[in-house]
Amino acid sequence: MIVTLTINPAIDRIVNVDRLAFEDRAYINCIRESAGGRGINSSRVIHSFDGPTLAVLTSGGDSGKRLEGHLADCGFPISVVPIHNESRTNLTITDKHGLTVNLNEAGPALSKEEGAAVERAVRATLDKASWLMLCGSLAPGVPASFYGKLISIARQKGVKTLLRANGDALREGIEARPTVAAPSQQEAERLLGRTLLTRTHYLEAAERIRAMGPESVALSLGSRGAVGAFADGLLEALPPRVDAVCPIGAGDALTAAYAWSMRIKPNHAEALRWGVAAGTASARLPGMNFASLAQTEEIYRKVELRRAE
Fold this sequence. Notes:
Blueprint: E1 2-6, E2 10-17, E3 28-36, H1 38-48, E4 53-59, H2 61-70, E5 78-82, E6 88-95, E7 100-103, H3 112-123, E8 131-135, H4 146-156, E9 160-164, H5 167-175, E10 180-181, H6 185-192, H7 199-211, E11 216-220, E12 226-230, E13 233-238, H8 250-264, H9 268-283, H10 293-300, E14 304-307
Parallel strand pairs: 1-4, 1-8, 2-6, 4-5, 8-9, 9-10, 10-11
Antiparallel strand pairs: 2-3, 6-7, 11-12, 12-13, 13-14
Helix pairs in contact: 1-8, 4-5, 6-7, 8-9, 9-10
């Protein structure tokens, strides 16, 4: 199965408004809450694609109980690590044109003992895992080396790893040589200390990140698709033009579909194509929703793969 880790999950409060405009009034159309976090989102997508998945997550306080309540009918198993401090709540405001504002809390601090409990929970899943996805921000108090340590543990068990993180957690995780590093454009810019503006920049960035340690890189570029850096060269996956309604979570759909595809057939080109298809199809949906396999297949047929010279 594909195991996901969300060490810093959240209650995602999604507010849909008529329009977002600077220094002007907006009217709320609807509000909804869901359990959020990159790993949880990835497990949702994998499960909807009929893939086996297990989500490992932390939970604390009243908001943690609400988070677990939202997952009660998710359809896939979860492994909850209790923590003392309150789980965070994030706010997303989006309008019908896809303009979005994200306001994220840093999250609850974890003690050394709680971090060790998360590590034990992940270790306990690896005998049945084919992939381990390490997704999202680390909670305060967790060392930046945490993901890197889990990558090394998974390698010893013969489990492939996908890393989608930011900042020092991404940098140190990459140095541990994951199977795939899957940063967004913004995460890659912070990692490399440069702005990425052109196709040449994207290709160079993917190559540079792969040279830092991972076996492969899937650099997601939003509406421009993704660039893959693999042992046999560079590949671009170019999506069709669509009307993006809410791009939040599209990156989670991309990485989930990538791991799902690799589990079925280890072909990086096809995995990149499926990933871009899932991200693009999800961006067409309102709110924080993920495309079904049928909706993703519709886009998959239109994604162009191109070798980069």
